[in-house]
Design a protein that fits this description.
Elements (H helix, E strand, L loop, with lengths): L14 E3 L7 H10 L7 H4 L14 H14 L7 E10 L10 E11 L3 E12 L3 E13 L25 E6 L4 H6 L11 H6 L9 H17 L6 E8 L8 E8 L5 E8 L2 E11 L3
Antiparallel strand pairs: 1-3, 2-5, 2-7, 3-4, 4-5, 6-8, 7-10, 8-9, 9-10
Amino acid sequence: MEVCMKLNLDARFETVTSRPYSVSWQTAIGYALAIGATADDLDLLWEGHSNFRVFPTFAVVPTFAPVMKLLMGLNADLNRVVHGGQDVQLHQPIPLDVPMISTGKVTEVLDKGKGAVVNIETETRTDAHGLLFTTSWSIFCRGQGDFGGERGTAPVLPEPLENTPELWSGTAHTTKEQAMLYRLSGDTNPLHVDPELAQKVGFSSPILHGLCTYGQAARLTMKSMYDGQWDRLTRFSARFSREVYPGDSIEIKIQPTNDAQCHRLEATVGDRTVLSHGVMEVEAV
């Protein structure tokens, strides 16, 4: 019987500050390609474009390092953790070539019996721009629960309007190389490239990063519903419910809520719901 490491719950109260991080045009373009940008998205892929932009969900890239540092401080078994959900809130566009600093802290560690859920929040700022974006990460630590902690409560989400047609639906097509592209953004977990490891932990082959599916859904939705006005995206939150394999086609559905600027999102691959509890908020014009 495998014995799992115990979480270091004393580390819950630590705050981590990142090294300065600057977004280069190469890194911004690499991320855009990894989340499925095409030649039609020239303002994401050509640094000489008059309106060259960093796609909003890039916010997960500079905050990945402090999140990992916090997980290591908690003694999380990084070979067994699963990314459960992600929330990004944008306060202003992400600038190029400007040093930014991210601070992260653990907000709660929930005891789910067979595992633990670690919720982490980050803030990223620059001296010139102030607060750029905040992120919330939900990480499931398999086998590290049952420590007598609180289970937590389900989040309250805006309900989709009943008996109302979908606002939009579409398909994001991934390639066999999608995870290999996304790894260049900093998440080099071999689960996304090593067939032997993937099979060892129960998958038929390497799986796509949840954050890649997340970015794909955000990009295609903003492209199709808002004509590529990327900076109008102010928040995107979703739960990673099931695995996606590179090469899968992801069906995305957007439903309205009582707030015209807030939508519900769900993404499926076949009969698997891969993104659930999705909430997108878009700035009004």
